[in-house]
Sequence to fold (83 residues):
Amino acid sequence: MATSLRPTARDILTMTSEDLRKNVSDLGQDPKSMSKTERQTWLIERVVPSEAAFAVEMPSMPSFVDKLTPELQLQYYCKKEEK
Fold:
């Protein structure tokens, strides 16, 4: 397995049953009643960031906007969307 703190999906899919059992247990889940596939699925759902998390694009904010109150920031973006 890779030495990173968070395993990748590839790491999880290539782990031995014992490694899977240890990782699931380390995250607070009892792995005894789980099959190898269930352990892999459980780990992937909890430790691998989804692609959607990387797809979110934050709008660029002019430097003066962050100095405005939240209400004025909202007005700024509403007006900007109207254009």
In short: The chain is about 55% helix and 0% strand. Residues 25 and 73 are 45 Å apart (CA to CA). Residues 9-55 form one domain.
